[in-house]
Design brief:
alpha/beta
């Protein structure tokens, strides 16, 4: 078996949707497209993925509709939920490699990383990724932070030859429409001059991305670490298109 691809959605600022994008992409790949994944939850200050998985267990046990949906899904799926490993930035790669030595064989390993480039352990972790995807929003502060982060990686890491990183791509997230706005196009032109590029697919600022079963009733799950996104919510979400574009880049 070939070595897994190491992937991270990363920025130096919180609130841009790193963990949500990681969860959506990992779950779509694993549960819909059959790509085995593993997630390294490296943010030891809050462990967002542990919170996501704990919430999944809670809502599926308390909501009869979701409980039946989970049982029906796994009856046909034939595999377990993907593994989430809690670690810290300094140990993350070593822990992942240990799991591979133990016989676990994911095709993609996602690393959920806290947002900063001022920590040497995080810089070293970023340098071990094969691909970085940098969420960018139309909020001015978030936008500037994401561009600075991506530029830093390209100019101070990628060009040195001392990193595994093969590519860095911006991902437009939480924008007001399902396609790139004029502002997005203007910023894309600017970042191209900096040697950066963004994905063609965008994710809109839609409430569906936060549907995690917290509300009762027959509401489907969209963000879940145990289930695929509900088919009713997938329509018009651009998530299938985003995952297809990411798969083409990381070659899985």
């Amino acid at each position: 078996m070939s070595e897994p691809v190491f992937v991270a959605f990363a920025t130096q600022k919180g609130g841009t949707g790193k963990s949500t994008l990681t969860a959506l992409t990992a779950s779509y790949l694993h549960y819909i497209e059959g790509i085995d994944v593993m997630v390294m939850d490296c943010d030891d200050r809050q462990h967002s993925f542990k919170d996501y998985r704990d919430n999944d267990f809670l809502v599926t046990n308390e909501n009869p509709y979701l409980k039946r949906a989970v049982m029906n899904f796994y009856r046909n799926f034939g595999k377990k939920a993907y593994e989430i490993i809690l670690t810290n930035p300094g140990d993350a790669v070593g822990v992942a490699l240990d799991r591979l030595e133990e016989g676990v064989s994911p095709q993609v390993v996602f690393f959920d990383i806290t947002g900063t480039v001022n920590d040497l352990s995080i810089v070293k972790l970023l340098s071990r990724m094969d691909y970085l995807f940098v969420p960018i929003t139309t909020d001015t502060a978030d936008m500037k932070s994401s561009i600075r982060f991506a530029s830093h990686v390209v100019n101070n890491m990628l060009t040195t030859g001392k990193t595994k990183i093969k590519g860095v791509n911006l991902v437009w997230n939480r924008i007001p429409s399902k396609s790139k706005t004029r502002l997005c196009d203007m910023i894309d032109g600017y970042v191209e001059e900096l040697g950066l590029q963004s994905l063609d697919t965008v994710l809109s600022n839609s409430s569906r991305f936060f549907k995690d079963g917290a509300t009762t009733g027959r509401n489907g799950l969209f963000r879940s670490t145990m289930m695929p996104p509900d088919k009713r919510l997938l329509k018009g979400s651009n998530l299938p298109e985003l995952v297809a574009e990411i798969r083409k880049i990381i070659n899985v």
